[in-house]
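WARN retry 2 of 3 for item q-0093 after timeout on previous attempt; input resubmitted unchanged.
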Amino acid sequence: MVDLITAVGVGVVVAALAFVRQVAELQLERVANHPQRELLPREQALIEEAGNRVNVFDFGGPLSFGAAANLGHEVRTHAHDDAFVLILDFSRVPFLDVSSARAIADIAADAKRAGRHVYVAAMREELRKVLSGLEADRDLDPERVYPDRVVALEAALEQIRRVS
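OK item q-0093 returned
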């Protein structure tokens, strides 16, 4: 009887781990250096004007611990070498957990060390509270938090024009 209970317990744990891995893979697929949703004409024009100097990372869906380990790696891998601004678009992120908050902090710190600016677009107040509560927003400039992607893109282009 103990062997059957152990086997069922092991099966449940393995199934849970497989589920977490599958969800994490889906979350990471949605992290891209281009928007995954249909662009507004203004967004398309701004992205084209920015070229490789601005990268937009569109986080699609909740960010959980399963994806957190690779989140920073995905951003570093997909950021253009000559990118001056990284825009992190949270418009489709309903929540993030502690691990994801730490990954966001690492992304911002890496960008700062590389001389890049991080702009945040469409972050819900609940997400800001999580980042702030964990002090994971240390390298996120509150002056570079925007209500949507269009405003963030406009600000990024203005910043690039000033330094060019």
